[in-house]
Amino acid sequence: MKKAKKLKNKKKSKQQIKRRLGLIKVLLYIFVICFAIYGVKMYINKYAGPGTYNVAKKLAKVKLEMPTAIPTTIPPTTFVEEIPSGFCLRVPVIFYHHIEPIDQAKIEGHAQLTVDTSNFENQMKYLSDNGYTSYFAEDLANALINNQSLPGKPVVITVDDGYSDFFSYGFPIIQKYNIKTSLFIPTGLIGVAGYMTWDNIRNMERSGVVNSYNHTWSHYSMGTNDDTKIEQEIQAAKFQLIDQLGKANDIFAYPYGTTSPEAINALQNKGFRAAFTTIPGYYQCDSYILKLRRTRIGNASLSVYGL
Questions:
Q1: CA-to-CA separations, 135 to 7, 128, 132, 178, 266, in angstroms, rounded
Q2: C-beta of residue 158 within 8 angstroms of C-beta of residue 95
Q3: E-state strands within 63-169
Q4: What is the DSSP annotation of 194-250?
Q5: In 207-220, which positions are buried (b, 16+ CB within 10 angstroms) versus exposed (e)?
Q6: What digits encode the pLDDT tens for the residues 199-246?
Q7: Which residues pair with 157 in a beta bridge?
Q8: How many Cβ atoms sit within 10 Å of the Cβ of residue 123?
Q9: Helix (H) or strand (E) holding 75
Q10: How far apart are CA 183 and CA 274, in angstroms?
Q11: pTM to 2 decimals?
């Protein structure tokens, strides 16, 4: 009898141990799952920036690869020049990439895309001294859509790609001369070495002389027929602009200046009101509001460019 009771107690003890082990396993599983979720959130915060968890979830849906730090150079697409028609305004839209001392640009290997700091200051002073009124890209879009003129001698200054040298060298100059400047930024490259940070951009926007616009997520060429990729790039940049700056202006500039019917359709479907190419020309018309003209500026006086 005692032996049977002893065996029964032993069996009961084994069952209790199994139950405890099972409970420990469950707790371990819960811990692993919680740790994994925490790790994912930390990863998202690291790559999407502060406060961007909702944006990061949307980015995950569009399945983009992380952009490279240096966009690949793509030969420009040949554009068919359109004859101006409809409502048109003569508004020079000029664009820059790097603003820094030219000797430094030579060392860094991008002198061909750089306007020397002193030359840039002379150009901004020229605009100020000669009575030009600077406008943001969206102001031009509004004028064309509403068939209205822009007062004064209008000019739109744009800077592409979000390089950090603009914050260091260009921004103090446009502040000095109160020149409104439109930044077209590939949002996925912001924070990468050689590019501005979101804090840089927010600081500039608070000054009142800078507005930021969509230039895709990874500086992706729009001269393709990949509808899905085109839409992903546009949407991902839009999400980040909303999250980081609290707005998503419906103005776009084509990376490398390249476009396609697929890109134009995507912009129209997403409600974009205007888009800029790198086709030179100073007449802007509502008939090609998604292919507006921009003239690249080098190290010469602006008078050389017809301003």
A1: 91, 13, 10, 11, 26
A2: yes
A3: 88-90, 93-96, 98-99, 114-115, 132-135, 153-160
A4: TB--HHHHHHHHHTTSEEEEE--SS---S-S--HHHHHHHHHHHHHHHHHHHS---S
A5: eebbbbbbbbbbbb
A6: 999 999 999 999 999 999 999 999 998 999 999 999 999 999 999 999
A7: 94, 181
A8: 25
A9: none
A10: 15
A11: 0.77
